[in-house]
Design a protein that fits this description.
single chain, 288 residues, alpha+beta, 7-stranded mixed sheet, 7 strands, 55% helix, oxidoreductase activity, acting on the CH-CH group of donors, Acyl-CoA dehydrogenase C-terminal domain-containing protein, flavin adenine dinucleotide binding
């Protein structure tokens, strides 16, 4: 359905979707599944960064296949010396399905590499976002043609990337909240005034406070899209942390969530925790 082509330039077969619509789509995907939201966020922002490069980069990526996928690797990063690339990039989302990789080197350049040239790809094992395709890439003395080395032009990409990452966290928190509320409503309907009803009422108050925090985080993310990069980054960090704390509040309102690893609330909580950690680190990388 074009989920990976939202920010891909129209001249290369993409949608060039308005950024606010894209951020909302990321949050909606994450509310259903945190991994899907993170994949959507990272694949599309990678395409946005690629679209800001020289046109011949876009031709390399999408000239033969408009559905080609791009993944971007940032920290720790690598170095390019005498036309050879060496480095390591952690938690690269979508590396398992990408056709091309944009790898950060020397803090101010990006190197475009065919995925087929990367042989050391190790899946990242983490508790949350299990289907986000996160992987660690390692390259040693890989020959790179000069025409595939680009200055890392921003063109607003850093703000959009940070907003998408924060939206993936807030969306997963919103999905967690909605599942929790549905569970509480079901239990209240079946409680018939039992002692459990008093505990559930406390839970509803916690859920109401969490909902306010998630709404506030969402508003911060939307507002950040029109702010200067440093201000936007601060707002995006605050939004991600606020969403994480809201998720903590919901999980803590019922012992049943924490005791049942198969509970969708517990699954989304793990997605929120991992997504927040990745988002904060990504925002630090973008600052540098």
């Amino acid at each position: 359905m074009g989920a990976w082509q939202m920010l891909q330039p129209k001249r290369f077969g993409g949608q060039s979707m308005p950024v606010e619509e894209f951020v909302a789509a990321v949050a909606a995907a994450a509310a259903q599944d945190g991994s899907a939201g993170w994949r959507c966020a990272m694949a599309n922002t990678a395409a946005y960064w690629a679209g800001a490069l020289s046109d011949h980069a876009g031709t390399d990526i999408w000239g033969g296949d408009a559905a080609a996928r791009v993944a971007i690797g940032r920290g720790p990063g690598g170095r390019l010396e005498w036309g050879r690339l060496t480095g390591q990039w952690c938690d690269v989302a979508g590396a398992d399905v990408a056709d091309w990789l944009l790898l950060a080197v020397d803090e101010d350049r990006l190197v475009l590499v065919p995925r087929a040239d990367i042989t050391a790809v190790v899946p990242t094992e983490i508790a949350g976002l299990p289907e986000a395709g996160l992987a660690e890439l390692t390259v040693t003395a890989l020959p790179v043609a000069e025409e595939r080395v680009f200055p890392a032009r921003d063109d607003g990409a850093a703000v959009i990337t940070g907003a998408a990452a924060a939206a993936a966290v807030a969306g997963a928190a919103d999905g967690l909240w909605r599942v929790h509320v549905a569970q509480v409503q079901e239990k209240l309907a079946a409680s018939y005034g039992s002692a459990e009803a008093a505990d559930l009422t406390v839970s509803t108050r916690q859920a109401a406070r969490a909902a306010a925090d998630i709404d506030a985080a969402t508003l911060q993310i939307i507002a950040s899209l029109t702010q200067d990069p440093p201000t936007a980054a601060r707002a995006q960090r605050q939004a991600a942390v606020r969403a994480r704390e809201a998720a903590d509040r919901v999980l803590g309102s019922s012992r049943g969530h924490a005791l049942d690893s198969s509970d969708p609330v517990a699954r989304l909580w793990r997605d929120v925790q991992t997504g927040c950690r990745l988002a904060l680190r990504l925002l630090d990388d973008l600052d540098r």
